[in-house]
Amino acid sequence: MTWWKTGSIYQIYPRSFQDSDGDGVGDLKGIEARLDHLVALGVDAIWISPIFVSPMHDFGYDVADYCDIDPRFGTLADFDALLAAAHARGLKLLLDFVPNHSSTDHPWFRESRSSRDNPKRDWYIWRDPAPDGGPPNNWISDFGGSAWEYDAATGQYYYHAFLKEQADLNWRNPDVRHAMMDVLRFWFDRGVDGFRIDVLWHMVKHADFPDNPANPAYRPEMGEMHAVLQSNSTDQPEVHDIAAEMRRIADGYPGDRVLIGEIYLPIEKLMHYYGIDTPEVHLPFNFQLIEAPWDARSLATMIADYEAALPPGGWPNWVLGNHDRPRIATRVGGPQARVAAMLLLTLRGTPTIYYGDELGLTDVAIPPDRVQDPRELREPGWGLGRDPVRTPMPWNASAHAGFSSAEPWLPLGPDWPTRNVAAQAADAGSMLALYRDLLSLRRKHAALAEGDFRLLETTGSVLAYERWRGDERIVVALNLSGEDQPFALPAGEVVLRTLPGGVRTDTLRGNEGVVILVR
Ligand code: NOJ
Question: What is the pLDDT, as a whole number, of residue 320?
C-alpha cells in the first residue's frame, strides 16, 4: 500500500515550531533542526501551513507570491534544504496550497483593482453594488461582516470569503485556473510530496450570486458567518472538475504524490470530493472527530456512518485537531486525550497529528494585549480566536522553552517548564511516549496500518473495534469516560495501555484504552 495510506501525517504551524534567527517566529531552518523529533516520534510525512510570501494578515493564508518563500520563514534555498533533509530521513513533505483567494497585495489583484478594463479584472470576483449602493448580496465573510468590499476607485465590490485582504480568485476564468495549476507544478517539480488544499469547497460560487438562505439554528456565539447557510457561496458542482484537474496533475508525477482537501461539509457531500467517475483528492479531510460529541455511542455511530459512506476505493482519514480548532486535550481533558490519541492512531485510515498534541498541549489563554488572530480581533470575546492553539512548541526547560532566543510571537503555555519534548522524552509514562508507542505499533502491525475494520458492540462508555490483516487480529477498547466500566477483554496480549499498571480482564478503568493482540 502507498505511503499516504499506511503512514501518518504531522501538521506543523511554521510560526510556532522552531525559531532559528531570534525573531520570535518559527522558520524553515528551525523546522529542519527539529526533524529528528519527528523521526523519533515515528510519523511519515509533514504538512507545513503556508510559508509563501505574505503580508500575514491571516498569517500566511493570504499569499502574495505563490512561488516564493516569505523572508520571515527563509528562502527558496532554505526550503530546498529542508526538503532534502526531510527526504534524507524518509519523511515526506506536503505544502499548503491556498487557491481560493490571494492576498490583495498579490500583483494579480493590484492589476485587477487598477481599472475595470484591466485584463486581470476578471481574475477576481467583482460585482456592481446593489440598487441601494450596498453589497451585491447577503454573503457573510467567515471572519464576520459582509464578504464584499467596496472599491471606490472603480465603483464595484470584490468578494472575500475571509478577510478583506484575502480576495477570492475567480476560478470560472480559465486563465486563473491555468496560472494556479502552474503553481502546483512549480512545487511538484521542486520535489514536494503533495498538498493540503485550503478551503477546497469554497473555490467556486454560484454563477448568479443569489443571497444565501438564513440559518434557522444561528446563535451569535457561533460567529456571524453562521447567520446564513453557505449554500450558494460554496460547494458548487463546478468545483469537482477543478479538483479532478489537480488530481491529474498530481498523478502525472512519479512517487505517489498526495492531495488532501480541507472540506467542512456533511458526510455525503464530503464523499463527493473523492471523485465520482473521475478521481479528485486522495483524502478529503475528515473532521468528524473534531465535531462529534465525545461519547462512545456518538463516536460509534459517526465512525460506522463514515465507513459506510466511503466510495469504493476511498481511503479513510482522521483528525483530532488543527490550527483552527480547539486542542483535543482542552476539549476532552488530559487523561481522555490519551484515549483520543489511541483512537486516532488505531482507526482505519490515515491520521493527521497536530503539532504539540503529542505533548498533550492545551489551549493557551492569550492576554488581550497579545491577541494576534484576525478572527478574534474581528469578533472578540466568543472564543472563536485561534491563537490559543497556535502557541510555540515547548522543546525543553531552557529560556523560551528552546523555541526561540527571543520572546515568542505568542505566549507559551504556563506548563512549558515540565510539559516539553525533553522532559517527556525521558518519561516512559508521558504523552509523548504514548504517541511514540502508538506510531511504532502502527508500523509493526499491518492490521493497524492497513487492515480491515469492524466495530464491536458498544457497551456503556466503551467504544471497541477490531482490526485484522491475514492471521493478525487486534482489538482496541477505549473507555470514553472517567469511570470504571465493566468490559470483558478478549484473550490475548495487551500490547499497549493508556494507563500504567492494571491487569483486570473484566474492567476498563476510567480513561483507559487498551490495544490487545488477540490470540
Ligand atoms: C482555512 C485555514 O485553515 C484557516 O486558517 C484560514 O484562515 C482560512 N482557510 C482562510 O485561508
Answer: 98
